[in-house]
Amino acid sequence: MTRHYYECPLRWSDMDAFGHVNNAVFLKYLEEARIDFMFRLKPADDDGPSFAGGSVVARHEIDYLRPLVHRHAPVTVESWVTKIGAASLTISYEVKDEEQVYVRASTVVVPYDLRAQRPRRITAEERAVLEGYMDDADDERDGGSGALAA
User: Fold this and answer.
1) CATH, domain 4-135, list 3.30.300.180, 3.10.129.10, 3.40.50.2000, 3.40.50.1100
2) Contact at 8 Å (CB) between 87 and 126?
3) 69-78 pLDDT, tens per residue?
4) Are 142 and 93 in contact (CB under 8 A)?
5) For 81-110, what is each residue's pLDDT tens digit?
6) Where are the domains of the chain?
7) Using CB atoms within 10 A of its CB, is residue 20 exposed (0-12), middle (13-18) or buried (19+)?
8) Beta-carbon contacts of residue 49 (< 8 Å; ≥ 6 apart)
């Protein structure tokens, strides 16, 4: 299984009154990583549809494990695919550094036809590329608890 790695800088404006990255800002980090990931998933056939041509978010799920405070070093957002359906896929993430994981999250993404203004199905070419990033062992990583670390 291949994973996608995105180095995400922390900005001073990401901090809240408590001195750590605000919970809503993590959605922005995930978005940046997801867009970087999705644009790299374009099949070799440039004429066909691709996720770079349009997708919408149907769902986010986030477990905040540890506070992340401002620093100059970026965090890594590691992404992989945990589910591929006929017209959607689930991307899972860890926001982390070498020492710890701060956030575990997932996003359900629906490919979208921008011209027709409607969702579309995942093509065979896209599925083949996505399968290279597939991992279904998500629940084993955190014991399936999804609990916030104290």
Assistant:
1) 3.10.129.10
2) no
3) 999 999 999 9
4) no
5) 999 999 999 999 999 999 999 999 999 999
6) 4-135
7) middle
8) 111, 113, 120, 123, 126
